Amino acid sequence: MSNILLSVNNIEVAYHGVVLVLRGVSLEVPGGKIICLLGANGAGKTTTLKAISGLLHTEAGKVIHGDIRFDGQRLDKLGPEAIATLGIIQVLEGRRVLEHLTVEENLEVASYIYGRVHLQRDLDRVYDYFPRLKDLRHQVSGYISGGEQQMLVAGRAFMAHPKVVLMDEPSLGLAPLMVEEIFEVIRRVNSEEGTSFLLVEQNAMAALDLAEYGYVMETGRIVLDGPVQQLKGNEDVKEFYLGFGALGQRKSYREVKHYKRRKRWLG
Amino acid sequence: MMGVLLSVIFLNNFGVRIAIPLAIGCAFGIGWVLERGILRPLIGQPIISALLMTLAVAYLLDGVATIFWGTKIVPYPQWYPEQSFPFMAIRVSSGMVWTILAATGIFVALAFFYRRSMMGKAMRATAESHQVSQSLGIKVTRVFSLCWIMAAVIAFIMAFFFGVHVGAFRYLSEWGFRAIPAVLIGGLDSILGALVGGLLVGVLEVIATAYLGAYVGSMFPFIILLIVIIVRPHGFFGQAEIVRV
Amino acid sequence: MVTEDEVQLRTDNVCLSFGAVKALDGISLDVKLHQLLAVIGPNGAGKTCLFNVINGFYRPQEGEVYFEGRKITQLPPYKIAELGISRTFQAIQLYAGLSVVDNIMAGRHIHLKSGMVSGAIYFGRAQREEAEHRKEVEWLIDFLELTSVRDRIVGSLPYGLQKRVDLGRALALEPKLLLLDEPMAGMSRDEKEAMARFILDVVEMRGITVTLVEHDMGVVMDIADRVVVFDYGHKIADGLPEEIRNNEQVIKAYLGKPKEA
Amino acid sequence: MRPSGIMDVNYRQSAAMLRTRSQWLAVGILLAFLAVAGRVFPSEIVDVMNMMFILIVAAHGLNILTGYCGQVSVGHAAFKGVGAYSAAMLIVRLGWNHWVALPVAALAAGGAGVLFGLPAFRVGGFYLAMSTLAAQFILTTVFIFAMPGIVGGISGITVPFPAIGDFSFRIPENQYYLFMPMCVVMTIVARNIARSRMGRAFVAVRDNEVAAEIMGVNPFGYKLRAFFIGCLFAGVAGWMRVVYDGCVRPDIYPLMASIWLLGTIIIGGMGTTIGPILGVILVRALNEMVLMLSPLIGGFFPIEIAIRMGAGLGLIAFAVVVIVFLIFQPRGLAHLWEVLGARMRHWPFRYEPR
Question: D15 FRET partner, CA 20 to 30 A, in A231, A242, D65, D296?
């Protein structure tokens, strides 16, 4: 791939100096593309994002090997604020709105990096992506619904005119319609502003539809990567992430149960 | 406490015009050093750590003060002309007027700062979540420095006024604790609350002392504090906690 | 078809508002014994609110909640737990600093009897009791396939396993009714399958009534006996999964246009 | 995780305090040491140890309240004072026996704790801590000003030393054999509370009140219980302090003492039974060291500064230790100990196996 904007080169990450969470992770985000990162819980996807954004520092985690480069510059030695200023914004998992601030104040705070010169224009841009937020702008953000909060944290990231957005589970706990809306906005921001996305997602089907290239992580390593078409065709991805049975049929959760139960008896 | 003691030195040696900027400069320095050296590593730690840390710092300064000043009261120079004006039924000293003016000025400035300025908003964001603020590129460390510098400077300014009333002595740090009922009664995060709470506590303490004796008077703010905590935990102007499950 | 005594939990015209916002607007719902009921609806439709009303975190302004024929609307959450309603949370509410065993053991609280004094002496009764309850806890750990992590600190476990511990703790209460708030959120397909299996086992083997809120339609349609749909604090549909899937109103409010994988 | 080779064959065993033979041996040696220490060491050291025993009992109480139940108390010294004053008044004004006064004094302190814990009904965290701060100021004011004829006013009450037969607890060597067993018993009680139903409920309330409630734990009820037990311990410590000093005075229980205790359990490690013990030993030993060294340091300064060196340096040393621990080891000595153990277990590997 050409035009690599962000590259993670064989990093290892340890927490508290004792627990090794990532053991050799490499990935690349080209400019203007959407990349997705799949994997079971605890595989280290969030840790990878935090290693890039520098937020690892506040959690007693450390990159102990390898490096992270953005436009040729090393990131793994920088603090989270500096990295954000360079244009890499992480959207944290779990709708982390600033509860006591209003919707609009949440967005204004995010213009800290880009400055207030174009504040109104930037606000309008976000309200254009998420019209719902405009109606809610004077509401205290702690009291709006989960889906609206997810819109808010996404919109907040766009306020800073990022070059790369590290998006952690945008669809977590969202209703199907809402998931579609958020994914649609990601697609728009990507095509209209050329923003790159590194998307961590459990909703593998939606993520693979949106992204161009994907990585699969297991227990702290990248185990598989390729263009999404190739991943969608992979047997293991089909079985473990998309839920197709051996016959190419969609598996029912009820049947899975009996199958596994028998496996437990035998094992 | 430090503020009062240091301003005594400056006032005695340099006179008002130099002493005030000098003391503010010192406050700036002390606030910055404290934040840099001691509170910065606590980013992301629970609030109790910060609470205990500030107490520890208080005792550290207390220890230094004990060594150099001992426990005696140092008389505070009278640095503004003492006059008094009749006001309604009572006479108000010019010191009182100055104090009230300074306090009001600080309140207005603070309120404006928090609601309007970018830095004020960044500060409120930081108060809610260090991590989110960092992810948005807000320099949490700078916000912290500023907070502490502001706190120190305000404390120093008030020390100038306060010193005249009570003199300078080591146990002044206990007076800091007396501010707590006032702030809590008003509501922790409300500027107006602090003003109202402060006035309320002050007035009630004086009244209680007058009618019920010094014994009840001195613990009266804390009795009010208990009642307020039970009846209206977040004070009169504070924001309620948002709990979502 | 369904007789009255099979209804385990009933909400009768429950209304709840925060200021001007009506979170629940006249919700009447029957939860039937041994049934797996799924509650679905857009974000902010009031699903979690209903759970919070049932287990006593919120007091509705209007309406009543009855559990096994008894009115529980005014009871505090811990009393409701003692009656046999337990739940899990959307955002996991575990004891992050404790081990898996201790977390699940914490769920046994209402079944432990030893008081302050015998606890302090820790001899005889308290000790025997402790051992008995550990047996129950170990059974749950085995059932939920948590054996390999039983002594790990919960905070260090991956999210999927934490959800499982959360379920384990709710089951340790030996509830009659189990409320699951988005048990599958943030899980990979594989983990969802495991979770679905546990939930079905809970209903079938232990005879516990389960009510769950979930957004993954695949899961809901496959495992639920009955589906209820909320929108803006109203109940807009109630029926078998098949009926819901084809309900026009539900498609419009929630599902979006049917998209086949 | 625990070292391999140690297998539990039943649940009772896995919940036991001491598991291995070497642990039993270590405890045996410790007890034997404690048994003879009161006669072996010089009087000054025994005196310091006595003070440690008292502080350990108080710290256990605070640890139950703050460490296990998560309710920060900045008024623990005042609750200790309630115990001390109750004991002194019962003994001197009503002529009670010391031993009968002990449980009553403890209950009085526990009661005071419950009284000031009542705001827990509405608030938690910082606000509740402020309620204990109010307790500190109100109680010390009461000690000084309320009914001086009975409470003793600023000069306090002189209390006779207790005795069993001819064995008077007047000198440190004899007091040692009263305080040491009390401290050991209270430590065991603290440990048992922590690992029983109630301890778990405390931790449940501390870590997650919402979750505690849905499991049938009444948060308010347990907070009050924590206040009661924590202050009960403080009351016992207060009684011990009366015996130690032979008097009560209001200045023995200032805010500083409360914060000192809080710092101690942070340094030792909150929410562990060993924490308060380690914390008290470290901080107290440090204090003695400072007292020893301060004349030396004071020699470099003019005399009027030198005489205040001890008090000032004591404060500074304590503050510095608290600051250092908060920065570098917020979970205290107990955690340091565990990490060391974990490191040794998977040595020579650097990381835990996953």
Answer: D65
